[in-house]
Write a structure and sequence with these properties.
The structure holds two protein chains of two kinds. Chain A is an alpha+beta fold. Chain A contains six helices and eight strands. Chain A is 43% helix and 18% strand. Chain A is globular and about 60 Å long. Chain B has a single domain, classed as Helix Hairpins, CATH 1.10.287. Chain B contains two helices and two strands. Classes of the chains: A alpha+beta, B mainly alpha.
């Protein structure tokens, strides 16, 4: 196959790619709330960066409360973020934070290798998402995206 | 051009990861929906039996009057949640125990009401799951198209362009070399004569 992509194609492609980078993490909350705060709300929710509302299931919040206990309910920030790093060769999620790791390890019934970080493989991701459908959220590695943003900005292609 | 290729490859990787996460989500929801559906079918069969018994024992009029009271005791919260940028519904139901005059009903009606109270939250959860699956499947189709466009059209085209340009540059280099050799020969001939 042989073809030259013309300037118009490139412009379109770059616009599209820039947009993809922009929206990769648009579903994340503007500000996370603690478990205690959410339990006190009538409709537990957070606002996402794209302006949409993400509502938590009370049943899941109560399940998390049973794991962390009332004394640490004001320390756990929700939703728990599962970081996806595209630089890994396969789909791997990383959970960071001592309390977050403790919660996820209890949900999965396994002992974590590190106290402050835990790697989750595909089957474990499925299990976590099944049990904590609204209280966990995927996030694409910011380090990876920032690299792209920085290089695009340096080239003056992103404002 | 190489920079563009690297960018396209990285975006392809992100989209591919997003696609596999969406497929993961779909499978999680599908498994749960299958379980939920069999539970709903079981409860529906049970509640039909109970309701038909109640209808037989207390008559249509009493059962309809009880049924008209019930919606007051059911509240459904309709909201949204986000899965990788895709907005899907969240339905939360609260079914309080209904208050109705016990002197006009029999235990069959109570049984029917109890079974329906059990059925309703399950039915609502099933609706939520199935709607989520529908939205996820549409998003998966869209995402797959984008991934395929990058994988089979955009990236190969950029690669082909890079290859073509490299070939052209190499050709020009070879031509330059041949020209220089020729000039050298001509100059040496002139010097000799």
């Amino acid at each position: 196959m042989y073809s030259i992509v013309n300037d118009r194609d490139y412009r379109l492609l770059e616009e599209y790619l820039k947009e993809e980078l922009r929206i990769a993490n648009a579903h994340l909350p503007q500000r996370r709330k603690t478990l205690k705060q959410l339990l006190e709300e009538d409709i537990p929710h957070v606002l996402c960066r794209d302006g949409r509302v993400h509502v938590f299931k009370r049943r899941e919040l109560e399940y998390l409360l049973s794991i962390v206990g009332e004394d640490r309910a004001d320390e756990l920030l929700l939703p728990i973020l599962i970081e996806i790093d595209p630089s890994f060769s396969e789909l791997v999620g990383v959970v960071k934070g001592v309390l977050e790791v403790e919660v996820i390890s209890k949900v999965l019934g396994i002992r974590p290798e590190k106290v402050d970080a835990m790697y989750l493989y595909r089957s474990q991701l499925c299990e976590v998402r099944k049990k904590l459908r609204t209280t966990t959220q995927y996030v694409f590695s910011t380090k990876y995206l920032l690299e792209e943003f920085r290089s695009l900005k340096e080239e003056g292609k992103l404002t | 051009m190489r920079r563009r290729l690297a960018l396209a490859r990285k975006i392809h990787r992100i989209l591919k990861d997003r696609l596999s996460l969406l497929v993961n989500e779909y499978l999680v929801h599908a498994r749960e929906a299958i379980e939920k559906r069999s539970r709903v079918v079981e409860l529906l069969a049970k509640s039909y039996d109970k309701v038909s018994l109640a209808l037989g024992m207390n008559g249509l009029e009493v059962c309809e009057s009880i049924a008209s009271i019930l919606p007051k005791y059911v509240t459904i919260l309709v909201a949204t949640r986000n899965i990788l940028g895709l907005s899907v519904p969240v339905l939360e139901s609260k079914v309080k125990p209904p208050l109705y005059p016990l002197y006009i009903t029999s235990s069959y009606v109570d049984d029917a009401v109890r079974t329906c109270r059990e059925l309703l939250p399950e039915l609502i959860e099933l609706a939520e799951l199935e709607k989520t699956m529908e939205r996820l499947s549409l998003e998966i189709i869209k995402m797959r198209r984008r991934v395929n466009a990058l994988e089979y059209i955009v990236i190969p085209r950029i690669e082909a362009t890079i290859k073509y340009l490299r070939m052209k540059f190499e050709e020009r280099e070879r031509e330059d070399k041949a020209r220089l050799k020729r000039i050298k020969v001509v100059l040496s001939r002139r010097r000799g004569s």
